Amino acid sequence: MKKLNLKKLLSLTAAVALTLSLAACSGGTASSPSPSASAPAGSAPAAGEGYKVAVVKQLDHASMDEIANAITGRLDEIAAEKGAEITYQVFSGQNDQSTLTQIGSQIVADGYSAIVPIGTLAAQVMVVAAEDSKTPVIFAAVSDPAYNDLTGIDYLTGTSDALNTEFILDMMLAQNPDTAKVGLLYSKSETNSATPIAEAKTYLDGKGIAYVEATANTNDEVIAAASSLIADGVDAVFTPTDNVVMAAELAIYEDLAAAGIPHYTGADSFVRNGAFATCGVNYTGLGAQTADLVDQALTEGMDGLEDFYKVSGGIITVNTETAAALGADYSVFADMGDLVEVTTTAE
Questions:
Q1: Which residues pair with 64 in a beta bridge?
Q2: Which residues pair with 116 in a beta bridge?
Q3: Which among 120, 76, 77 is positioned nearest to 97, based on CA atoms?
């Protein structure tokens, strides 16, 4: 088994984590009556036994809420299909490593059958929490598992929403071939953003297009960063699957649209919160696929599972209200992929 150098990264907060409460956790919904015991991984539940699954969101925002709902919904379906007893609890770490560490410790102590972290930091923390117990960890929506040291671990698998950065930037130029300056809006604390931002820089350099970076780690900083890009006169903004920016999208999309700046992003949840367009993974489908991996891990064991499974994208999502505010013709995307039209919601 791979040595966990993640422990070095995460151990600084472990000592204080037990002082925190679980007030950040939200109650889940049971798909069937609570089991009297949790069945061990790799075996079908016997009479009176069942599986208890912990779903751990890195934080609360539209993408992670959609994934969590899809996971629990699919677990309900699996329980009904198989006549099995599956219960689950949904937790939120509020994007705080110490809180996530506390949650992980409690999950392991409570004997959950499997842990399903959503997001890279949540996955990293849960892997460390489960190292001694070898509780199966099945992550969801980790954009770059290899970069984040989430491969080669025998009790770990999951789904990746790796971004096709080049394609999204192709969309940007298809919609406006005269794009001369691009804003790169992201958080340096989000490891999900490292690879696609590097890819974006390489792409733009190759096209001779200037770019301006604006980084942020809080909602207020995202708002300020977006304002700085407007002041810099960028022609478009690109953000990868960045959780910090996603959490603030509702606070920035109107200003960007009013300035005539289309916001291209890494997930459809951004677009449902007001960004202009994306091409990527459908998170409801990703959540369902993750739940199927949970079922496989618990009933068949981890041996036959890959390090991770990349979920195919190819779905172009456009916010029609934002397109109207921009005066943008998005018909150019029709021949580039499956086009989905959405409007802005606060969910």
A1: none
A2: 55
A3: 120
